[in-house]
């Protein structure tokens, strides 16, 4: 009698260009959930890193029975960005409901052991994934390496939201009294002003704070790559100021992700973030089908802005997995080497 028991296997690659075609297909079929990994891997495949081991992708394959072809169940990435190492990300095409029946513990254990053979334990400073995966993997990693979670381990806890051309709300906002407004892509001459806002944004994103030097570097990279827009205010009696910034640094063929929204405290409560975000969405939706972003559970002000623009939580009708919560858990900072994202 044939067995119904599922088996699984692991594959490891150090170059995005060598990721199996089934992984790319899974990314394309789930462009929202995979965006963090898909966007990075797409760029890395075009410009392969020369340093072997700088990046690693670990794929777990499920084979429900001997007659089935293996399918992608999990992909873990441990990669490096322009400002340093990224957290460990784990993507799955399975919904949270499906994960309850997928026997994830032995699979995540196998992934953790594969990661342990691929990178030094101190490289893994945090894990970002759907809640259940993040918590389970963190427990496994602590058991396997002896590195506990940080004293306050939850660095980020958020929901994924989306907006498309049908959802975008084009409501006008009142103009600013005594000042003209210009919504535009950031340019090189904005670097100094933008870097100050990047520095302030990071200051509220412990532990991923930025030095002044790295804030300038981040601003420069985003502007050079055309990933940043600014809300410029031009008062009649003084020099122009940048009131808000919006960044979209992770894009694929069909999806753009908003990765930074920040308003100078001086200009808050005047609609600047909403006005600029709506403008950026209009521009991005000329080429992309959907825009996504994460909103922290403890940031109701941001949630209000995003809803005013037209962002909604995922539903079966928005082509995504609904009501999923994501979190980042950090490990003991005295035992790991902190990166940045």
Automatic annotation (TrEMBL):
Show the GO MF annotations.
acyltransferase activity, transferring groups other than amino-acyl groups
Pinpoint the N-acetyltransferase domain residues: 181-332
Q: Which domain of life is it from?
A: Eukaryota
Which Pfam families does UniProt cross-reference here?
Acetyltransf_1
PROSITE patterns assigned to the protein according to its UniProt record, in alphabetical order = GNAT
Q: In this entry, which stretches build a coiled coil? A: none
Q: Which Gene3D superfamilies match?
A: 3.40.630.30
Which named protein is this?
Answer: N-acetyltransferase domain-containing protein
Organism, by scientific name, is Ganoderma sinense ZZ0214-1
